[in-house]
Protein: ArsR family transcriptional regulator
Organism: Mucilaginibacter celer
Amino acid sequence: MAIHKKEEFTSTDQMISMVAKAMSHPARIAILRIVSENPNCTTGDIVELLPLAQATVSHHLKEMAAAGLIIASNEGKKSIYQVNWPSWKLYTSLFGGLADNIREK
């Protein structure tokens, strides 16, 4: 019988899928690099470095925060972004485990 519901898969597989989806756009990879190199940056800081509109950057940041990749905190009217390092370490470990388990036979 085919499995059609996400809930039927392991929590590890669900988490890997969530992170892969959150990173599935080249802009999000670039944003993660920017945030990792510039802690406490704002949406405006990121917009200055990428050829994207502020609304587009905000959308990507929202998706990445929902997946736990970054942390947003408010400073007045501005949101400040940082990499969520504990989550990032967990995710890289999960992807490493996946890579170790998938080998050419």
Observations:
- The chain has a mean pLDDT of 89.
